[in-house]
Amino acid sequence: MDLFIAIFTGTIIAATPLIFAALGELVVEKSGVLNLGIEGMMLMGAAFAFWAVIAGLPMPVAILAGALGGAAASLLFGVLALTFLTNQYAAGLALAIFGSGVSAFLGRNFGSAPIDALKKIYIPYLSDIPVVGPMLFRFDPMVYFAIVMFFVISWFLYRTKGGLVLRTIGESPETAHAIGYPVIRIRYLAVLFGGLMAGLAGAYLSVAYTPLWVENMTAGKGWISLALVVFATWRPLRVLLGAWLFGGMTILQLQGQALGIAVPSELLSALPYLATIIVLVIISQNRQMLALHFPASLAKPFRPAT
Amino acid sequence: MFNLTRRQFLQYSGAAGAALGTTGLAGIASAQEPLKIGVVYVSPIADIGWTKQHSLGVDAIKAEFGDKVALTVIDNIFMPQDAERVFRELAASGNQLVFGTSFSHGTPMQKVAPRFPKVAFEHCSGIVHLANLGTFEAKYYEGTFVAGAAGAHMSKAGKIGFIGGFPIPDIVGPANALLLGAQSVNPDATCNAIFLNSWFDPGKEKEAANTLLSQGCDVICSMTDTATGVQVAGEGGAWSIGYASDMAKFGSGKQLTAFTLDWSSDYVGAAKGVAAGTWKPEARWDGLAGGVVKMAPYNEAIPADVITKLKQLEADIGSGKIHPYAGELKDQDGNVKVAAGSVLADADIRGMNWFVKGMIGKLG
């Protein structure tokens, strides 16, 4: 039972940075903009949050600093892709490389001092329930916040007028523009939101998950988040499930290795990727549904006619 | 000492070339030419870790030679295609001795070295030798053997957890020695091994450490380039063993010891050889005896008599009285690999691709 609890909680925690970053990217892509620079924005978020902690700022401020760091990086992409209408693929890749470089530069002064990680909170009474308590009620606040953000984003996209406008812009910016919506401004907001979320993901890594500074500490999680959005066919619930699936398979393969099951570790290490791809391919069989959720104007530059 | 990034290096070397063009050969006419040495690091110099330990070796050259040496250090060169260009530039710009510090620097150095026969090349963790390319490497397994003994003294469960990058001989061998050291104290000790299949992924390392803790391991040894394993073990109340650098400050007081690397003798030795004109390409492979592997200060929680035993073990391994891979050694399936009374041959140590009995894990 303890092993099961360990696998379950490990999965939830491992999925948290992916949930933040992928949900943020989902909103960006729903507005018709493709930002490939998640890895860079996450690293900026990680660096800023870590910086704030060693500067002695309280933890909530540090996490906010991380989010703002990610947003600042995304603004750079916004200016390139939305104002100057450069190729979004190129601008996004540039941001990924830029963010990695800038975070490494900032990190030169961090040393590798250990910091006090974000504390777990034991929710009173609930965390004392056998089995369920340690499974669900003993996480740090960011884990719960990621779930809250899932509900907020699902609600926003499909239950509010703002979400409808955002999705319209993603489908057909010309139409949205013709009926008077400020396409560029709304896309900017979406890109900034994506940056905030990627920044949160990075902050989670540097101050909560692995609370020490190492260069390029995201180790590819930004790219995995990007892939999750596509494989989840642009639907929030599937992003969430995909992140849990990926996190769960990662933990399971490590457990499998340590138990000494007779499969080479190289193959086990590939398992999370294989499983996520297979499951999401199977659930994406319906091409009509796919077309329905795919933002038709994705990565196409839009200049409002004057 | 210059401490340059790749880009700065390109700018500076361009500027230096221009300066040489304008001032002619005036600079070379100066009487006392410093020994020019180039060093290539695989990653930036952090506070701890692989590259940090190499930078200490370079510092030792500086301390020994003072202003009689001109060092050019270039960091963050991992990809072989980048490395080849950097090695060629270092050799072409007059360095008499060039160090590569990563296995991935091997192929580029083997390509560049023959074109600069008057330049001495030294490759850490290399396996190929040429007329002007020598190698140096550490006997990690001597360190992990002592660390394993320390772990078994302190472990209640007799279960040790090991995290490595890739299942290659340089990692598999030390993992085996870790368990053999533990079994020298507690014959029933076992070791669960996890390979990340990545040189660098702190998140996955944390998950691996948590996995080992959840399976009941109460000593964690992580042979990776971050302190994450030591940190997670400490948070989980388990003992830990650091690698490359002393990682005690990350371990919540639970780091038992660390097998640290000190390459000073390799760096200074090669520099002295080149300065005196006596340098030869060698395959240096030192451990506790040569001081390349050193045990970090033992945790105060270890009883004094145990520390005395561990120090004696260090001395005995150093003197050759105890060999970590002494027979009888059996593999996981119980086949005898080394007969009683003999030891594993050096070539077999460098190529170890099997787990000893008691290791829990599967090699491909």
Automatic annotation (TrEMBL), chain A:
InterPro entries from the UniProt entry: ABC_transp_permease
Coiled coil: none
Chain ranges passing through the membrane: 6-28, 40-57, 63-82, 89-106, 142-158, 188-210, 222-246, 258-283
Record keywords: Cell membrane, Membrane, Transmembrane, Transmembrane helix
Main location group: membrane
Topology class, membrane: Multi-pass membrane protein
Compartments in which it is found: Cell membrane
PANTHER family, sorted: ABC TRANSPORTER PERMEASE PROTEIN, SUGAR ABC TRANSPORTER INTEGRAL MEMBRANE PROTEIN-RELATED
Record protein name field: ABC transporter permease
Organism this protein belongs to: Aminobacter carboxidus
Upper classification of the organism: Bacteria, Pseudomonadati, Pseudomonadota, Alphaproteobacteria, Hyphomicrobiales
TrEMBL record, chain B:
The keyword Lipoprotein appears for this protein: yes
Keywords, in A-Z order: Lipoprotein, Signal
Location of the ABC transporter substrate-binding protein PnrA-like domain: 36-310
CDD domains: PBP1_BMP-like
PROSITE patterns: TAT
Keyword Lipoprotein: yes
Record's GO cellular component terms: plasma membrane
PANTHER family: ABC TRANSPORTER SUBSTRATE-BINDING PROTEIN
Protein name listed in UniProt: BMP family ABC transporter substrate-binding protein
Origin species: Aminobacter carboxidus
